[in-house]
Each structure stands twice: as structure tokens, then as C-alpha cells.
Queue: 2 jobs
Job 1
Amino acid sequence: MLDVARVERDPGAVATILRELFGKFSIHLALEDRLLYPKLRNWPVPHLQAVANRFEVEMGGMKAEFDRYRRSWPGPQAISAAPARFVAETLAVLGALEQRINREDQDLYPSFEETACAPATQFGPFGTAASVRPVLSDDQLAKALPRAIEDGRIVPFFQPKFDIFRKRIIGFEALARWPDPYWGMVAPIRFIPAAEEAGLILALGEAMLAASCREAAAWDADASIAVNVSPHQLSRGSDFVAMVSSTLAETGLPPARLELEITESVMMEPSLRGVIDALTAMGVGIAIDDFGTGYSSLAYLKRFSASTVKIDKSFIDDMPAALDSCILVDAIIRLGHGLGMTVVAEGVESAEQVEALELAGCDIIQGYAIAPALAGAQAVGLLAAQGHEDKPPMAMKG
Ligand code: C2E
Ligand code: CA
Ligand code: CA
């Protein structure tokens, strides 16, 4: 509504609409100043603390300034006396707000993104993203997905895998992220099933594998990379094996540094056994993902040449309070070790869980207790910060 002609026509309506809108902005700014920034400053991830500090320094004073402007607002009569000035001033304030929101969307929220994309929803402009961001419908998602895959806009983020005993990050799991400038961060729980349905999962899986291997090849030392594989990809049989092999050759990543994560239910499919054996023969590691959520036939653990078993988050959630979960986790760890496998606990969030898992003899933990999935540059930063094995390990919270 902010063109002079309109303001001249109806200054009362313009004033009312802007008052409403600016009231919401004010609440939004207050929430961020009081809740969001202080919370991020204490988040146990150094680069997020740095981002939060920067935002606070650069933008902390904005609310006071903004409220001063709101209070000094002229009434409809004064507005109609100098509509051009009113429009110019208001546009300047809106411009500053827009800049702040843009910077948050591009810098702050993507850094914070992880938590399975929840923050973009929790802390979006006006407190809820839904009121500002249009909701991405299934139809729109299906339409936008092919281009996003084609243009390489779905990228791997990297969640650290932390060796409890050596107190070191020994590798990362690649998790697909789709940061869209319009819809914000689209969650994999939405686009992975959509890609499966549209027959795009092969292309997406291939792109994710290539990008993940390329990044991992550039990491120094011997940090490993775990990549999720869809059942559709495995069902391609020897084509899939050939694709993995040529990706490794093209990116120069040694096979031993790649692990493919396959869900438990897929492991039970006898026809896929050959594929898994071929991958293993190539020197690629196999991890059984989400262990404990499927039929959990322990016999299958033995039948497959998997190198790693990942205990599903649902068991970790109840630790250490629920005794039955502790007993189950303990049993999976012992069974896995008995079969010569590495045991990873997923979705580890609290210090108590870390402690309980360490006591139970779990090898590796993954979860917000260490860090969410991070952009490539930040993952590299974490590796660099811990230095090489002969140096003292990095300090970790949690
Ligand atoms: P997943 O393989 O079980 O991945 C772990 C999920 O738990 C990730 O969600 C991760 O962000 C989240 N997570 C990690 N630590 C914690 C924690 O401490 N607390 C909580 N609440 N959550 C945690 P995300 O990234 O949303 O991925 C969801 C699923 O999407 C993945 O589950 C995986 O099955 C699938 N996926 C992601 N990337 C790919 C991919 O490139 N290819 C295929 N085929 N599937 C993928
Ligand atoms: Ca996984
Ligand atoms: Ca999992």
C-alpha cells in the first residue's frame, strides 16, 4: 500500500494496517532479543555462538530504534499533510527490517537450521514461519523437486560421529538438506518420500553420494563419511554397485572411508544380499540404520556383513531413566561387539545419555549432545579444531 497516491486516498486505512504489522514486528524483535539470541549464545556449538554474538552486536539496538519510530508516528491527518515524506520514512524502516530478516534467513537460521529443520519453523519471522512463509503444499513440492535436484540445490549437511573413548570426531553422516530461499529449509522427511514416489530418488541419491564423497575426500586424516541409501537404489543391483565404484574413483575417496547406511528392513530382503556383499568386497562399510525399529531379528545381524549397527533414537530417548531401554541398548551393544561390529547410538541429546552409553561400552555417539548436521565448511572447521590424533583431544560439552 505504500505508494503516495494510495496513502493520499486513505491515510486512515494505511495507518491502521501498518500499526498492526509493526506491532507484530515489535513482538518479533523482542522475542529474538530476549529469547533467541541469548539461547543461541549458550548453544554448545562454537560457530553458532559466534553467529548469535554477531547478530546481537549488529542488530541488538534495532528494537529500541524501531519502537521510537512507532511511538513518533503521525496520525492520519499528519500523514495526509505530507504523504511523500511518510512513505519515504516508512519504507526506510521496512527496508531495515527486511534486511534483518533476510540476513537471518540466509545466515542465522541456516546455521541453526539442523534440529531437523525445526528452528526455521520455531523462530521464523513473527515467531511462526507459517504466518509469513507460504506453506509448501505437496503439489508445489512435487513440482519444484526435479529442478532442485537437477540444479544441485539439495546438498549434504554433516552430522559428527563422536568416538566416546578417544573423545574425537571420527567421521560424519551426510544428511540431505534443501535450503530454499522462498520456502525456507525443506525437511528430508518431506522431500525424500516425494523423491521416492516421483522416481527421483536414484538421481537424488547419486547426487548426495557424489557431493558427500567429494567433500570427504578433501578432509584430512581419515575421517569417514556415512551416506544414507534408499531401498530403491539398492534394488538396482549391480548398477548401484557400479555407480558407487565410479563415484569413489572420480572423487578419489578411498572405499574404506565410505559407509553406506541401510535400514534394518532392507537388510532382511534376501535378494539384496548380493549387492551388500559386492559393496563389502569393494571395501565399503555397511551400517544397519535405525536398528531396533523393524523386526529386529537378531539373527539377521549375523547374516549380513555389516560393519556398523546404529541403535535407533527411540531407545536412546528413554535412557537412562527407563530400565528396559537401558537393558536393550546394553544387549545390542554386546551383541554388536560379539559380531565384530562398531556400535553407534543415534539421537543422543543429553549428558546423562552420553554417560550411560559410555558406561555401556557404546563406541560412537551421534546427536545434538555433540552437534546437529552442519554445513560443509563448519564440519571441516570442527575437524581442524580437534587437530590430529597425537594432539590432545578437543574439549566437548555434554
Ligand atoms: P536418519 O538416517 O535416521 O537420520 C537421523 C535423523 O535424526 C536426522 O534427521 C538428524 O538430523 C536427526 N537427529 C540427529 N541427532 C538428533 C538428536 O540428537 N535429536 C533429534 N531429535 N534428532 C536428531 P533428518 O536430517 O531430518 O533426516 C531424516 C531422515 O531422512 C534420515 O533419518 C534418513 O532416513 C533420511 N535421509 C536424510 N538424508 C538422506 C539421503 O541423502 N538419502 C536418503 N535415502 N535418505 C536420507
Ligand atoms: Ca541414517
Ligand atoms: Ca537412523
Job 2
Amino acid sequence: MQIGFIGLGNMGAPMAINLVKAGHSVKAFDLSAEAVAKVVAEGGQAASSAQDAVQGAEAIVTMLPASQHVEGLFLGQGGQGGLLENISKGALIIDSSTIAAATSQKVAQAAEAAGVGFIDAPVSGGTGGAIAGTLTFMVGGSDSDLERARPLLEKMGANIFHAGSVGAGQTAKICNNMLLGILMIGTSEAIALGAANGLDPAVLSEIMRRSSGGNWALEKYNPYPGVHEHAPASKGYAGGFGTDLMLKDLGLAQENALAVKASTPLGGLARALYAAHSLGGHGGEDFSSVIKLLQKQG
Ligand code: NAD
């Protein structure tokens, strides 16, 4: 299949590479030439612009930071035309960015008017899952669009859930990330308490992993340096899932909670703690660096 792939950051590059490895023709674009080079090195083609990436594509995959990037790209801004004008009728957009459900719906509506299909397909599984092709996709859209996307999603992920109509994938995603944001703080708090009492963080983590406190961070993404060799914590909190991206997701969860009058007190507190951590200069570090807020420094 001819695929246009836009947004080749920590997640997008390995996802695009998995499509290339599966034999698809991938034309890749990112504002960073360095990011494009990673995909080209694995057999992808470099697009000179987003317009070039989507020209003649049967499917367009986007993996961009936030709502404004997705809306700006497809619908345009400041009088500039959006990318929808350049996409062939009958093509399908698969947006895997985590953005507001309302933005997904707005872009899907415009896409439908242009004769282009759209699904929101945000992911979970981190950069490790993106590299291994084991992501979980949470899809919002029609049955038929999901079936068209499925062969591509299967090359990038291991679990595909149909959450409902357009926007439902995003709603599932912010529920999951609100839980992830809270549990990373809880896990960090427990490890910091043990370490302050002289416990070995690795031993304590293993005890909790096999006890009733066991969770995903203790399994795969320990916030304490050196416990998991491949976790961002062991690489100076580089790569992974940025604090500012977690902050964005917790903001989306709070906006949504306000709209539906849901009570999400821990989600609100988690958002405030990641905001303080970001203000402390850690916005670009992996979100597990939030443990620094809870540890004695120096
Ligand atoms: P990232 O910041 O590493 O990458 C985003 C990329 O988009 C960058 O390379 C940037 O140059 C590019 N970009 C921005 N605007 C662009 C434009 N107009 N045209 C072309 N390229 C553009 O972010 P990431 O960690 O890859 O996350 C991407 C999305 O996936 C976010 O919505 C995030 O919330 C979500 N997500 C991330 C993770 C994770 O573990 N990193 C996990 C699940 C979901």
C-alpha cells in the first residue's frame, strides 16, 4: 500500500519503520530532517513536504503532538489551506496522535465532506511497544474504516480495540493515561519512601511488583534509574513519553471531566504535580522523572 506518514518522533518513527518492514511503500514527513532520515535509513522515502507525503497515498498515518498540530495540518490555519485538499478521494486517514475527541470529530467531518475516511487510533505501549510492533490501538470510527485500517494497524500493534464512533478512541486513551499518570506518581512515591528508609529500590520494586501494588510501571517502566535497563529512567530520562505530553493528556482528561461533570480528584492532582515538575525544567524529560519531585535531591 502507498502510505503517507507524518510525525516521526519517539513513536512515529518506529511505527513508520514497521510499515516499511512489512513491505509497504512509506513516504515520510516530519519538520525535523533528522527524524525523516531515521525512516529513510530503514527503506522509507523522504517526502519534501506534508503535501508531498500524502500525494497519491491510499492511507495517511499521523503521529503528532497535540490537537492544534492535527487540526492545523488537515484543516489549515491563518487562511492557509489544509492538507485535505491534497488527499485523494477514497483515501483513509489514521490519526494515532493523542488529541481532544472534539478535534478528531471536527477533522473527520471535514474529511467526510472531502470524500476521505478518518479514524482516531491513539495508542498505548510506549516507545518499546512502538519498536516491537506491540502497541494497543484504541479506535474510534466506522466498522468499515476500521477494517480498511486493520492490516496496517496489525503491523504496528498487537491489540486493536474498537471503542465506538469517531472520538471514542481518544476518550478511552485519556482515561488510560489519567490512570497511568496517577500510577506513576504513586509508584514513585512508594519507591522514594523505601529509598529514604535505606531500602534498595530494585529489591523494593520487585517486592511490590509481585505483591498487591504490582502495576505497569513496576513491570516495564520503573522510574528509578538502573532498575530497568531499557526504561527512560536508566537513560537520563531521555526519549520515552515527555512530561509535557503527559501534562497535555491530563489536561484533556480534566477538560472532559468538566464537560461531563465527572469527579476525577486524583487526575486533577496528578495534572498539578506534572505541571509543577514541568515548570521545574523537566517538561522535555520522560514523565517518569516525576520521581524527582518526591526524592531528596543531591
Ligand atoms: P514527539 O514529540 O517525540 O514527536 C512528535 C513529532 O511530530 C516531532 O518529530 C515533530 O517534529 C513532529 N511534528 C510536529 N508538528 C509537525 C507538523 N506540522 N508536520 C510534521 N511533523 C510535525 O512525540 P511522541 O512521543 O512521538 O508522541 C506523539 C503522539 O503520541 C502524542 O500525541 C503523544 O501524546 C502520543 N503518545 C506518545 C507515547 C510515548 O510513549 N511517547 C505513547 C502513546 C501516545
